UniProtKB/TrEMBL annotation:
Source species, domain of life: Bacteria
Coiled coil: none
Domain ABC transmembrane type-1: 99-288
PROSITE patterns linked to this entry: ABC_TM1 (PS50928)
Subcellular location: Cell membrane
Protein name: Peptide ABC transporter permease
Keyword RNA-binding in record: no
Mode of membrane association: Multi-pass membrane protein
Transmembrane segments: 35-54, 102-126, 138-157, 163-181, 216-245, 265-287
Sorted UniProt keywords: Cell membrane, Membrane, Peptide transport, Protein transport, Transmembrane, Transmembrane helix, Transport
Length: 303
């Protein structure tokens, strides 16, 4: 047996998977994590099953049923559990459809910016030199552009749709992941297992994907969870100022914007979607916070 054949080639992936598993186990022991996960799962199930269970339409106008209050108030009636809006549309169903749109846009955006940012960050940190300098200056320039300015510039010139909204969010969010991935790569590329991989002839691509990439997940997982909530907020803001998904498709922003002028006599038009959005964001932020604390505890124990 040669010395090279005795080098543990999979030490980095195994170590990364072990750290990830310990973080998840520690996080799940927290009652906050369990409550937040169950709440978010319940909201997801509502968005999936609501349109099939509720006997109403999210887009059908019924002037005779406009401004109906929730069923627990005088004047409310089924099937409008949480009342109707100014055009007689079911508010609960519209809010659930808005939550589904916000969640899908948030998750897809974070997945794409995670892949793009980590790829750029790993490549930049591993190659170093002028490659690193150029890519990080591009990252700095992108980070200096406010999301709202970028959204108004791009979405204001064309009819907004889910694809262009996702593109704007990805374009504005990938630099954070690139920065984190680069910092981890700079620390990992000088370690023994990376040198061992080079000695036995592993290609740069294999080293980056097989050995360095698994080490990025622990410091970036809680960032991704929190970013889903952040992207949902931006989607609602875009809808509120008129550059989000266009009517008649319901979104949190358009529902809340349409109900602001009826706050005194039909407060539920604004409050219902606002509460649903707050519950969703609260559960995501709680999960992200628990993951961050668990990661710090695991890394402190490993140190």
């Amino acid at each position: 047996m040669t010395i090279l054949s005795s080098i543990p080639q999979s030490s980095a992936p195994a170590r990364g998977q072990s750290v990830n598993a310990r973080i998840l186990r520690l996080a799940w022991r927290s009652s906050e994590m369990k409550v937040a996960s169950l709440l978010f799962l319940a909201l997801c199930l509502l968005t999936l099953l609501g349109p099939f269970v509720i006997d109403a339409s999210a887009t059908k106008i019924s002037v005779a049923d406009k401004f109906l209050p929730p069923v627990f108030m005088e004047g409310g009636r089924l099937p409008y559990f949480l009342g109707t809006d100014q055009l007689g549309r079911d508010l609960l169903l519209r809010s659930l459809v808005g939550l589904r749109n916000a969640f899908l846009i948030g998750v897809v955006s974070v997945m794409l910016m995670f892949v793009l940012g980590c790829a750029i960050g790993i490549f930049s940190g591993y190659r170093g030199g002028w490659t690193d300098v150029v890519l990080m200056r591009i990252t700095d320039i992108q980070m200096s552009i406010p999301v709202i300015i970028l959204a108004i510039t791009i979405l204001g010139m064309s009819r907004p749709n889910p694809f262009t909204i996702v593109a704007v969010l990805v374009l504005s969010g990938w630099p954070i992941y690139a920065r984190v991935a680069r910092s981890v790569t700079l620390a990992e590329r000088q370690k023994e297992y990376v040198r061992a991989a080079r000695i036995i002839g592993a290609s740069d691509l294999r080293i980056m994907v097989r050995h360095i990439a698994p080490s990025i997940l622990p410091p970036i997982a809680f960032v991704a969870v929190l970013d889903v909530a952040r992207m949902m907020i931006f989607e609602a803001i875009f809808g509120f100022i008129g550059i989000g998904i266009q009517p008649p498709t319901p979104t949190f922003g358009t529902i809340i914007s349409g109900g602001t002028q009826y706050l005194l006599n039909a407060w539920w038009i604004t409050i219902v979607p606002g509460c649903l959005l707050a519950l969703s964001l609260g559960s995501l932020n709680l999960m992200g916070g628990v993951l961050e604390r668990s990661r710090n505890l695991v890394l402190q124990g490993a140190a």
